[in-house]
Amino acid sequence: MTYREICKAFTKSVIESAEWDALLLIEHFCKVSAAEVRTTPDKSYTAPALLSAVEQRLARRPLQYILGSWQFYRQIYTVNEHCLVPRSDTEILVEEAIRRLPPNARFADLCTGSGCIAVSVLAERPDTTALAVEKFPETLSLAKKNALQNGVGERFTPLLGDVLTKDVYRALPPLDAILSNPPYIATGVLSSLSKEVRAEPMAALDGGEDGLLFYRAILTHATPLLSDGGFFLFEIGYDQGEAVCRLGRESGFEETGIIKDLSGNDRVVALSHLNRSLQRKDKDH
Question: Which of left, alpha, beta for 240 (phi over 0: left; psi -120 to 50: alpha)?
Fold first, then answer.
């Protein structure tokens, strides 16, 4: 197949960024430069791996899974069906964590998935350490692999556990920050997602009936672990900012803020300045 033919097939199948996907597949499987692909659009490529990759993409398998790796922030991550695809929107959370973390901080990344949040923060902040919590062994193994590949394995502690239950939190020490991109899509919306997104792990997408299940559980169980001056950073859906801020205030946080992504959508909620006296009073009652 030629680059022009692959582009035409992808466009006919209503695949977004058809030309970009075709370019990346030829580059990866045929070891040809992007410049050569673009300047010889009618050159025929017969590598079996490329033909298989095109068929997979036409079946709407995510491009990232076909390639087996993907760039996120300044790092490269191995990705497969055991994790969500790292997305550029999540880099907003990473940048905020890098900026906010105090010197020599220890933080947790809950629902770590590929490990992209924890690993990218560790890579940019060599004075920090992280505990990465994940429910599924295969996914946690992938996160550990990504930590090692990106040179932060010694500061990355993987922990197997379900953040919806209180047991996993007993293994966590006091923390300067808790970061999380949890499942946040309402159950009833899942069936309307694109075929590519539905090819990703449903357990990493399904946020319960209202999409807020994981935020409630994490705030309930993890808030006592924060040291004085500690903070939460949550990735959120575009319409969940006010709801997650409200949950933060109900958990005793005096300061809540919403950080937008490059498209102007709400993307990250920051919770800080926990009122410890209010928290103790609530427990007394």
Answer: alpha
